[in-house]
Amino acid sequence: MEKARYYATGKRKTAIARVWLVSGTGAVSINNEVIDSVNRPQTLKMNMIKPLILTNTQGRYDVLAHVKGGGQAGQMEAIMYGIAKALNTVSEEYRKILKAEGLLSRDARIVERKKYNLKKARKATQYRKR
Question: Quick one: residue 76, left, alpha or beta (phi over 0 = left, psi -120 to 50 = alpha)?
Fold first, then answer.
């Protein structure tokens, strides 16, 4: 019997996650490491598998994720978005659940670039009248 595979890409800030859902026992691995051995806060790990919990598919699929760039929170949110997009391709029934929780919309906030003659993106030197 061939295993079903679903793929999606999740992005958040500067993190990009390639996520595969493979029918299995519910194991989660990030960059070929088991999630329990990955040094991340427990709240981020729970938030990452939120789409699986909401759709009651936590023990049905193994999650294989390769993530680059960003920090811990950005990477976990990119994986979460990737899982949600992959679940959306599995079944249209999951779309309503994921959409209601806001998991199918990309959070596009990224750091604004620094402009010339400014100290940061928008911070200028103090105006001096005299």
Answer: alpha
Q: How far is residue 4 from each of residues 1, 26, 31, 60, 84, measured CA to CA in Å?
A: 9, 14, 20, 11, 16
The domain that holds 55 is classified in CATH as 3.30.230.10
CA distance 110 to 52: 26
Residue 91 exposed, middle or buried by CB count within 10 Å (0-12, 13-18, 19+): exposed
Whether the per-residue pLDDT at 117 is higher than 90: the answer is: yes
pLDDT at 11 over 90: yes
pLDDT in tens, 40-61: 788 888 999 999 999 999 889 9
Whether the model pTM is above 0.85? yes
Give the domain range for residue 31.
Answer: 5-100
